[in-house]
Design brief:
The protein has helices at residues 19-37, 44-55, 62-69, 73-85, 107-127, 136-147, 158-176, 183-195, 200-206, 211-223, 245-266, 274-287; strands at residues 89-94, 97-105, 198-199, 227-232, 235-243. The protein is mainly alpha-helical.
Length: 299
């Protein structure tokens, strides 16, 4: 039996109140704007790595670059390899420590990065357009608190801060919820609880799950008995997804853990400012409310 509309909908924390959902949606919006303004020259992650090197007084080792740019080790290694092969960076042995490899910018990359400054600035400007002009500085400063940017974090672009905050949220999620359910999986289940059964495309959009990975996410949820897909009675070419009783029971068990993640991600922000920050995050997340192309998620 599939849980449907009359079976306890709208319980739980609700996606609009969850910072993780808003951060994920904001990151998708930023990626769309980046594609429109910067194109395929560099991805946001590649640019952040290069910007980290630009801000450094000297060459940095790979681990330090990854930490400052908000990238995990595997992603950092892949980006370093691609940028090195494309001539943006070079690796050499540290003359002060022969065991250490340092990474620096090549001479041509400095001029190329200077040429990207204007389109990158337009991305940040468009990203914050949904906010009143007087709130943008306040928002960016509070976002830096959520992202836990230390003294070495000189890159304060909102898009970069969103990625750092999303990374911190993923760490907190792992600590509180563990491996039983990922953030995107929870978003899908929570959306079904809130809205009832719906089509796969609409579900992916509403839950801010990248379309290119939505089918895999839904397949995993169905395999574990938490959702069920059926043919749409009005259009046999499409599939409807619904929450099962087992999925609902799972959500009820993890709701307190998810709310604990919410509390911890907002802990660096003064308590009296948290509601305003969540409201502004929602405006940024909804400001680019157009269908997202495949591959725009925070993969």
């Amino acid at each position: 039996m599939v849980a449907t509309e009359g079976d306890g909908r709208d319980r739980g924390p609700g996606r609009g109140a969850l910072v993780g959902h808003l951060l994920r949606r904001c990151q998708q919006v930023h990626n769309v704007l980046w594609s429109e303004e910067v194109g395929s020259t560099l991805t946001p992650s590649q640019y952040s790595l290069l910007a980290t090197l630009t801000a450094a007084d000297d060459g940095l080792d790979q681990n330090t670059i990854g930490l400052r740019a908000g990238l995990d080790r595997s992603t950092t290694a892949g980006i370093v390899r691609r940028l090195r092969d494309q001539g943006w960076i070079r690796q050499s042995r540290d003359p002060r420590d022969g065991r250490r490899q340092v990474i620096t910018l090549t001479a041509p990359s400095g001029a190329a990065l200077a040429g990207l400054a204007a389109p990158v600035a337009r991305v940040q400007s468009r990203f914050l357009e949904p906010l009143p002009s007087g709130a943008r500085g306040w928002f960016t400063a509070r976002l830096a608190l959520v992202a836990d940017v230390g003294p070495s974090g000189r890159d304060r672009r909102p898009g970069h801060l969103i990625r750092l905050a999303q990374q911190r949220h993923s760490v907190l999620w792992s600590e509180e919820v563990g491996g039983q359910l990922t953030g995107p999986q929870f978003a899908v289940l929570d959306e079904l609880r809130r809205a009832g059964g719906m089509g796969q495309g609409a579900l992916a959009e509403a839950s801010a799950v990248d379309r290119s990975s939505a089918s895999d996410v839904l397949g995993r949820l169905e395999a574990r008995g938490w959702t069920q897909r059926t043919a749409d009675p009005f259009d046999r070419r499409t599939r409807q997804v619904a929450l099962t009783p087992a999925g609902r029971a799972l959500l009820e068990g993890v709701d307190p853990l998810v709310l604990r993640v919410q509390e911890r991600i907002l802990a660096p922000v003064p308590e009296g400012e948290r509601e305003r920050l969540v409201t502004l995050l929602g405006r940024v997340a909804e400001g680019g409310r157009t269908p997202l192309a495949p591959g725009t998620g925070p993969q």
